[in-house]
Amino acid sequence: MNQTKDEQLLNMVENILALNTAMRFASILDLKGNIIEGIMKDRKTSLESQKQQEKFCKDAAKARKMREAYDKKLGKVRYVHTERENVTQITVYIKKYTIFITMEPELSVNKKLQIVTKIKKMSTHL
């Protein structure tokens, strides 16, 4: 049975959250920064209000646009890794979407890179 696009995106977000117990939030954004699909992991509370989260996602879309101005000379951005005191934020750019995730900051950089690699492999069909 073929899945609808919405079902594919929901499954993708669920699979991303299942990659590691340190995952907090996973979302798929359109190119304007609207959250198409997003899930906060069970037993985790958001560190931002919904309004702040929506603004951050809009800002992530703007940042993607700004970074694309440098693609010709520097190459395309593969992902963005932001390390904060309370949370790690990772943004992965794919063709028509942006995948935005948050996780607990205690994971090693190598573990985080493994997660990014898995997300990129999972999202090749989008």
Describe, in plain words, how this protein is organized in 3D.
The protein is of the alpha+beta class and 126 residues long. 40% of the residues lie in helices and 24% in strands. The chain has helices at residues 5-17, 50-68, 71-74, 109-122; strands spanning 23-29, 35-40, 79-83, 88-93, 98-103. A five-stranded antiparallel sheet has the order 2-1-5-4-3, with helices on both faces. A hairpin with a 4-residue loop joins strand 4 (88-93) and strand 5 (98-103).
Strand order of the largest sheet: 2-1-5-4-3
Classified in CATH, the superfamily is Dynein light chain 2a, cytoplasmic
Query: What is the count of DSSP helices, taking H or I runs of 4+ residues?
Result: 4
Q: Just give the CATH class.
A: Alpha Beta
How would a crystallographer describe the biggest sheet? Answer: 5 strands, antiparallel
Given helix and strand content, the structural type is alpha+beta
Estimate the mean pLDDT confidence.
92
What helical percentage do the residues reach?
A: 25-40%
Radius of gyration: 14 Å
Shape: globular
Short description:
40% of the residues lie in helices and 24% in strands. It has 126 residues and is of the alpha+beta class.
